[in-house]
Predict the structure.
Amino acid sequence: MLVAGMTVARPSFSHGAPQEKAARVEGLRAAARAECRGLAILGDLHGPQLHIGEPVREPMERVTDQPFVWRTEPGKEDERGVTIDF
């Protein structure tokens, strides 16, 4: 891809150990050096995650046209809302 004109690599940094990520970046840099080409590295990070509490029963069905609440008090998960750890 470098030979074809790639100027930016976007490796995923969402998963894996720091050593694996460093090795991935070094591999990209080594490939660019071998081809005598410049290469920018744009790290792809995952966005924010919201973790919800356990449902009090399954399946839980969302009630259409009713408010839905994000709660901070655990143990109140139902069709009207869920607990988040945000």
